[in-house]
Amino acid sequence: GQVHRAFDSTLERAVAVKFLRGDDPRETERLVLEARLQARVEHENVVRVHAVGSLEGRACLVLQLVEGKTLADLAAGLTLATRVELVRQAALGLDAAHRQGLVHRDVKPDNVLVEEGPGVPLARLGDFGLARGEEGGLTHSGFPAGTLEYMAPEQLASAGPVDFRADVYALGATLYAVLAGHPPFHGLAKASGRSEPAILLRRILADEPPALGAAVPRELALVAAWAMQREPAARYPSALAFAEDLGRFQRSEPVLARPPTLAYRATKWARRNPVAARAAAVAAAAVVPVAASVSFSGREAPRLAVPR
């Protein structure tokens, strides 16, 4: 929708008013739902909802006015420490939403508003227009609702419900974006007659996110990668756990995120290459008896060489 600055003459305060772009009754229903869901979350890192109603015949939300820009607008000019802190704050706001049973489904730098002031900037998570625990309606393009570059694989693979772990993935992608200057999967030109969204979809479902550059601290790269594991169960168990690991980085403490183990990588490779994995398993099984025989011979030879 469209967001405008306005003044509430009754309460004498500046507010933000969000209007729908059209007059589709379904969109009006979604706007009212957005207001109800967002109003359930009371946290300093979430934009507050003041009211829902109509103005000049148009459905609208009256929201807390955040004096500032989005994290997407500001990230390039911020210090590394400030970028990390703002993502950490957004994760805390998201955790508050999760504790109310909400899944945001569209976490990204554009939906993190940054309130600038004399001290540390304050991040406020906004735009709960897609927040639901269940409905996964498709857009007209045939893709699930959301922003493709920040959507978890399971969010793309099915139109069914997703849980909070999809938001944890999006937090990782958001951290990646503010560290690298672009989302994990981006800049794919049209090729082979396929649209860019189709290429992006294939890469998100099949590929690991590209490694962050050497200029990014290793611990932050690990945190982003941990949050963006393809399997939901392998990610941080909550947005709060993600925020806490960023806090450890800020305090120069060891983060909990770790590189994938060799066993984990082998399992993932086997899933991607089942035929080769079966062949390798057969070869390994054939090698075991030979190795055992060699080992047995090696133990017996010295005893035979000793004269009695």
Task: Tell me what you see in this structure.
It is a single chain. The protein has 308 residues and is of the alpha+beta class. The chain folds into two domains: 61 residues, 2-Layer Sandwich (Phosphorylase Kinase, domain 1); 188 residues, Transferase(Phosphotransferase) domain 1 (Transferase(Phosphotransferase), domain 1), CATH 1.10.510.10. Helices cover 44% and strands 13% of the residues. The chain is built from ten helices and seven strands. It has a four-stranded antiparallel beta sheet with strand order 1-2-4-3. A hairpin with a 2-residue loop joins β3 and β4. α7 packs antiparallel against α8. The C terminus is likely disordered.
Number of strands: 7
Number of domains: 2
Rg value: 25 Å
Looking at the structure, the CATH topology of the largest domain is Transferase(Phosphotransferase), domain 1
Q: Which structural class is indicated by helix and strand composition?
A: alpha+beta
Sequence of secondary-structure elements:
EEHEEEHHEEHHHHHHH
CATH homologous superfamily title of the largest domain: Transferase(Phosphotransferase) domain 1
Beta fraction of the residues?
5-15%
What's the number of helices?
10
Helix content: 40-55%
* Basic shape: globular
Instruction: Compute the average pLDDT.
Output: 79
Q: List low-pLDDT spans.
A: 133-143, 290-308
Just name the CATH architecture of the largest domain: Orthogonal Bundle
- What is the end-to-end distance? 95 Å
